[in-house]
Design a protein that fits this description.
This protein is mostly beta strands. The protein is built from no helices and 11 strands.
Length: about 120
C-alpha cells in the first residue's frame, strides 16, 4: 500500500534552516507529482510547494517563494523541502502528498495520499 513518511522537522530559531524529507513506497514514485502542504491548529491545510514527476517544474506559494526549495530523488523515492530563512509564521505541521498526475503540482485538489506529518516550530 502507499506509504509516505515525513521526517526532518524540529525546533529552529528564526532565520534558521531545516530540510524535510518524505520517503515514499507502494507506488511508482517517478510517475507522480508530489507536493508539500502545512497546517496550523484551527486552520485549513495550506499548499506550500509542488514538483512534477520528473522534477522538471516546481511551484511555490507566495508565502515561501525565495526561501523554500522543493526537490526529489526518484532513485531514492524521496521528496525534499529545504526551508531557509524560517519565520515564526512557518510554524506548522508539514505534510507531503502524492498527486494523482505526473504534471499537476499546484494546490490540494489532486492529492490522493498523505503522510502523517512532521512538526516544524520556529521560535526563539
Amino acid at each position: 500500500q502507499v506509504q509516505l513518511v515525513e521526517s526532518g522537522g524540529g525546533l529552529v530559531q528564526p532565520g534558521g534552516s531545516l530540510r524535510l524529507s518524505c520517503a515514499a513506497s507502494g507506488f511508482t514514485f517517478s510517475n507522480y507529482a508530489m507536493i508539500w502542504a502545512r497546517q496550523v491548529p484551527g486552520k485549513g491545510l495550506e499548499w506550500v510547494s509542488g514538483i512534477y514527476s520528473d522534477g522538471s517544474d516546481t511551484y511555490y506559494a507566495d508565502s515561501v517563494k525565495g526561501r523554500f526549495t522543493i526537490s526529489r530523488n526518484n532513485a531514492k523515492n524521496t521528496v525534499y523541502l529545504q526551508m531557509n530563512s524560517l519565520k515564526p509564521e512557518d510554524t506548522a505541521l508539514y505534510f507531503c502528498g502524492k498527486d494523482q498526475y505526473s504534471d499537476y503540482a499546484i494546490g490540494l485538489d489532486a492529492i490522493d495520499y498523505w503522510g502523517q506529518g512532521t512538526q516544524v516550530t520556529v521560535s526563539s
